[in-house]
Amino acid sequence: MVRVGSAEKVGTDHGWASLTDGELRVVAAVAQGMSNRSIAKQLYLSRHTVDAHLKHVYLKLDIHTRVQLTLLALQHGA
């Protein structure tokens, strides 16, 4: 992967602090053990939106599983 852009922007799109409010709501629901379909219903989102949020979260946090996400969420009090 090649990063494009100015050096000032490096790091601003990664890490827990880079997660949006919508992403954090989805993360909290994942940490509670909810399925994507249940999360979508609870948050009044489409399942595709939930999938997109999770994809962005995984990329920002450099993780690959719901278990890793749940552990990070618990560490950050989400």
Can you offer a commentary on this structure?
The protein has four helices and no strands. It has one domain: Winged helix-like DNA-binding domain superfamily/Winged helix DNA-binding domain (Arc Repressor Mutant, subunit A). With 78 residues, the chain is an all-alpha fold. The longest helix is centred in the last third of the chain and has 15 residues. The chain is globular and about 25 Å long. The protein starts with 20 loop residues before the first helix and ends with a helix.
Low-confidence stretches: 1-10
CATH class: Mainly Alpha
Oligomer: single chain
CATH fold category name: Arc Repressor Mutant, subunit A
The SS-based structural class is mainly alpha
Q: Which H/E pattern describes the elements?
A: HHHH
CATH superfamily: Winged helix-like DNA-binding domain superfamily/Winged helix DNA-binding domain
Radius of gyration: 13 Å
Mean pLDDT: 87
The overall strand count is: 0
- Would you identify the CATH architecture? Orthogonal Bundle
What would the principal axes of the Cα set say about the shape?
Answer: globular
User: Could you give a short account of the major beta sheet?
Assistant: none
- The percent range for strand residues is under 5%
How many domain regions?
Answer: 1
Summed up, the helix count is 4
* Range of helix content: 55-70%
Distance between the termini: 29 Å
